[in-house]
Amino acid sequence: MKLARVLVSNRALPSSKIGSWTTRMEKFIDNNPDFFLHILSPTDALKSSLYCKKGNFITWKKSLRNIQLLRWVSKDYIKALKRLSKTLDKLVIVVMDDQYLLQSITLIKSKLKCEVELVFSFHGFNLNLDDKVLKSVDKILWLSQLAHKKNRLNYESFPNSIVVGNAVDSQLFYPLSFQDYKSARKIKGYKEDEEILIWMANDRPKKGFHIFKEITNQLLKRNKEIKIILIGTSQVINHPNVFNVGRIPNNEVAKYLQIGSYYMFTTLYEEGFGLSLIEAYKSGNAVITTSKGAIPEVLAGLDYSYQVEDEYNFDLWLNKLEQARKETSFGKLKITEENASSVWSYDEWEGKFYNAIA
What is the pLDDT of residues 70-103, one digit of tens each? Predict the structure, then answer.
């Protein structure tokens, strides 16, 4: 039987975006160059690439949704899959976390010229698919048990499901040795004994920058020595203690996280995982976060991790930060590189992902 696996992504692979699952997928592709016959994404950078760009909806009229999905939104992807199906006996299509691309493929799945297995790699917490679409999906890959269990309750029938988890590359995100830590701080203009609080996210309101800004205002009135670094956002906090880094390539993120003491994650929605939390944690930071979505599972059993139940209660944030300060001896105590490497390790994830699709 002539079988081929095809990866469908609305994001370019490779990519330099911050906090993206594309980082681990790039490593997976590098480690397993023959696993996917083709990668359908908006780039032709790889030998296996087939350039496909997702289009926009022209109108949100429900009656025209399917037409738009096939003729505009997913046109490039559908065309490529139809062409590939003519030369194969079986096609395993893995859609990376895009419900519109998934829905488009379910519309033409029965019309493809070979047997098709449709796999949806879901990175959110709340699945929002019609029953009709879900019935055409053969398998769903989940980031957490919490999301899997919650969503099973919302549907009468459910496809085969596998929890593969998530991963952060321990070769990129790891705590520095004491000498390297001092040197890295000096390069960035910070002293060895300064406490540094880091916040990193994009500009979407649900990431809670407005929450962090108010926390910062109150914090800097109480602690005039603490330093703050902002990453990933075009929004700024105007204060001499705050360094507004802005948007940087993903491979530059670790260099800032590794000089931090604490990381604050003010997300306001149910996270499918909270990737930056683990990037910061593995880099040696204590983490303070909400308990939305899968976060309790992600941080289960981890030292120097703190959760806030009421994200709009600024005193709770400040109290948790103060607890983190004391329990880490004001930023001096950090997890070891050995312990960090075992937290959501890439190798473990790769094995689960590979076996779930192979």
Answer: 999 999 999 999 999 999 999 999 999 999 999 9
CA distance 342 to 168: 10
Q: Which domains does the chain have, with CATH numbers?
A: 3-168+345-357 (3.40.50.2000), 178-341 (3.40.50.2000)
DSSP 229-272: EEES-S----STTEEEEE---HHHHHHHHTT-SEEEE---S--S
For 117, other C-beta atoms within 10 Å of its C-beta total 16
Could you tell me which of 102, 172, 110 has the C-alpha nearest to residue 139? 102
Give me the residues paired with residue 231 across strands.
200, 246
Does this model's pTM top 0.70? yes
Cα 4 to Cα 27, 37, 89: the distances in Å are 20, 6, 8
Q: In the numeric block, which tokens belong to residue 355?
A: 């076996």
* Helix, strand or coil, per DSSP, at residue 123: coil
Collapsing DSSP to helix, strand or coil, 203 comes out as coil
